[in-house]
């Protein structure tokens, strides 16, 4: 049986599929596929392993023969899951294995932003490390501050644990449903969305992109935040409104921002956020460690192998497909 893989993935996952007797065809070009290329490459394959590729209704309807689609991500906002379910195609993702690495990225952005680290690094490159001024380039400290988590799931909990352990930060959170296990583990306290905005010194986003969370952090949200607060987003760029974020920083409604995700991606290289001292931006590298990417490739491969054996896939996004 043949699997089409939309980008070259770590050897661990590829090897597992080969050992299971599958023929693995990887898209090796350093560019994404067009819809036409995706459809034509998938036509004679039994499964698809998709890395960051948009799988919309048109693609799914043209590829209804697929026995399984495994995503190389935990997020599945770029897949029309409803159509896949209606067509009987199981969709798999890679939960859990990237929680630590993604939380580390949020922590890194928080600390880098609080000390203007990315901006100061660029100033050395520009030859601006000169006269020592004790009043210039001051950051803000994180010890004892309040961390607000929007979406306290696996990744949010890892971030909360790091912040509590490193800086004794108090944790508040906003979820649709309370996370009682996390409340016990980091003494987190559930608050309303407005209270989260008003009380957080650092507000970190770890929720999925849905119709409810799209554009949630807009001008109205930023104006409710503390003027010395830091906004962090390592989830999806569409959850914040980038124009409103820029204005909130320029007008000092908030103090700083750290982004691993932008809207759109890639961010243009002359974007004004990139030149602000209190802003740190990374190119969506939340899960980009050797360990995590290898583990993601293994989970994706396990989903493909199980799906092609006609078994229920282990990491399923749309369990309704089996009903
Ligand atoms: C995920 O797994 O959803 C990460 O954001 C990588 O895309």
TrEMBL record:
Residue span(s) of domain D-isomer specific 2-hydroxyacid dehydrogenase catalytic: 3-318
Superkingdom of the source species: Bacteria
Coiled-coil region(s): none
Alphabetized Pfam families for the sequence: 2-Hacid_dh, 2-Hacid_dh_C
Listed EC numbers: 1.1.1.79, 1.1.1.81
CDD domains linked: GDH
Domain D-isomer specific 2-hydroxyacid dehydrogenase NAD-binding, residue spans: 108-286
Keyword annotations of the record: Oxidoreductase
Gene Ontology cellular component terms for the protein in this record: cytosol
Uppermost EC category: oxidoreductase
GO MF annotation terms: glyoxylate reductase (NADPH) activity; hydroxypyruvate reductase [NAD(P)H] activity; NAD binding
Catalytically driven reaction(s): (R)-glycerate + NADP(+) = 3-hydroxypyruvate + NADPH + H(+); (R)-glycerate + NAD(+) = 3-hydroxypyruvate + NADH + H(+); glycolate + NADP(+) = glyoxylate + NADPH + H(+)
Annotated InterPro entries: D-isomer_2-hydroxyacid_DH, D-isomer_2_OHA_DH_cat_dom, D-isomer_DH_CS1, D-isomer_DH_NAD-bd, NAD(P)-bd_dom_sf
Family, per entry: Belongs to the D-isomer specific 2-hydroxyacid dehydrogenase family. GhrB subfamily.
Protein name per Swiss-Prot or TrEMBL: Glyoxylate/hydroxypyruvate reductase B
Source species of the chain: Pedobacter steynii
């Amino acid at each position: 049986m043949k699997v089409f893989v939309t980008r070259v993935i770590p050897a661990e996952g590829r090897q597992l599929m080969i050992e299971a007797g599958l023929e693995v065809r990887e898209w090796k070009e350093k560019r994404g596929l067009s819809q036409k290329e995706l459809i034509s490459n998938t036509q004679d394959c039994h499964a698809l392993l998709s890395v960051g590729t948009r799988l919309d209704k048109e693609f799914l309807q043209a590829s209804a023969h697929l026995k399984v689609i495994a995503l190389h991500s935990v997020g599945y906002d770029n897949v029309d899951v409803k159509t896949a379910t209606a067509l009987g195609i199981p969709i798999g993702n890679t939960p859990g294995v990237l929680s630590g690495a993604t939380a580390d990225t949020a922590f890194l952005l928080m600390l880098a932003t609080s000390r203007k680290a990315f901006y100061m690094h660029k100033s050395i490159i520009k030859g601006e490390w000169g006269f020592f001024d004790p009043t210039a380039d001051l950051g803000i400290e994180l010890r004892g501050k309040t961390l607000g988590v929007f979406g306290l799931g696996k990744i949010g909990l890892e971030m909360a644990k790091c912040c509590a352990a490193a800086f004794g930060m108090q944790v508040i959170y906003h979820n649709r449903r309370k996370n009682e296990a996390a409340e016990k583990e980091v003494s987190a306290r559930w608050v309303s969305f407005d209270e989260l905005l008003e009380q957080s010194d650092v507000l970190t986003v770890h929720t999925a992109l849905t119709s409810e969370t799209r554009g949630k952090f807009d001008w109205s949200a930023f104006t409710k935040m503390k003027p010395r607060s830091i906004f962090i987003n390592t989830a999806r760029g569409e959850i914040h409104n980038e124009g409103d974020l820029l204005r909130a920083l320029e007008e000092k409604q908030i103090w700083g921002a750290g982004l691993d995700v932008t809207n759109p991606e890639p961010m243009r290289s002359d974007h004004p956020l990139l030149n602000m001292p209190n802003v740190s931006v990374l190119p969506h590298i939340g899960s980009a460690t050797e360990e995590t990417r290898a583990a993601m490739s293994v989970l994706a491969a396990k989903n493909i192998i199980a799906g092609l054996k006609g078994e229920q896939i282990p990491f399923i996004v749309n369990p309704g497909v089996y009903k």
